[in-house]
Design goal:
It contains nine helices and ten strands. With 287 residues, it is α+β, with helices and mostly antiparallel strands. A hairpin with a 4-residue loop joins strand 9 and strand 10. Belongs to the FPG family.
Length: 287
Amino acid sequence: MPELPEVTALAADLDARLRGREIARMQLLAFPALKSYDPPLEALGGQRVVSVTRRGKFLDLATDGGLHLVMHLARAGWIRWRAEAPKSSGRPGSGPLAARLELDDGSGFDVTEAGTRKSLAIHVVRDPGEVPGIQRLGPDPLDDAFTLDAFRRILAARGRAQLKGVLCDQSVIAGIGNAYSDEILHLAKMSPFTPAAMSEERSAVLYAALRTTLADAVARAERVPASELKAEKKSTLRVHGRFGEPCPVCGDRIQQVIYADRTFQYCPGCQTGGKKLSDRVLDRLLK
């Protein structure tokens, strides 16, 4: 799933390509992906792009006519730029292609979504605040207003809630997902099950890990073509997606916990005092 660093890079790439350009049309090929109906998708035709920005994990394409094309790429969505007009017209249900934006010279981008679980969301609105997911967003963790004191207030308000869930909750902090929460907790040397309420010393360590992990990932992504962002992200992760591999810090074997819809990884040596966390799914299989 694209998270804050990748969506930031995608927004910057699209902004450089689209700003000031005229949209010829936006074609929808996976009809369930469109989550709004007024204004219609066709209203984007003839509009010029003013900017492309990020809001949490959402991409926000604004036009000079006051419209916003807001997209959430979910688990398996992506943006693929086309320098030329497509050789064939897209057909509804044709593979992973979900939507296609064309500029007046035929260039543009395709919105794709792999897999069978379709969660991609596309909105055309007059105000991004109309999108329910944006309405619920918490503060951006790289914003100047996201200070250590603000972070401490968030943690205190969550009380005994587990850190992993707090970091991934978009209504609490916007933009962090499964992968980067694993990386933040590993850098902070904290268990995913640590309660959110903690001492000032520990919260300072976690805050520094959060800001460092995200800022470093954003800086790396700025230099990477959009087509290579997924591979770049995967190559730099220390624990996420590396079950069974040695930890690059302490050499212990990276372990994982499987939930119904999410799997996360951690290092026992760095994060849990050598203790392996209970994994109900794996434990059941081994009985």
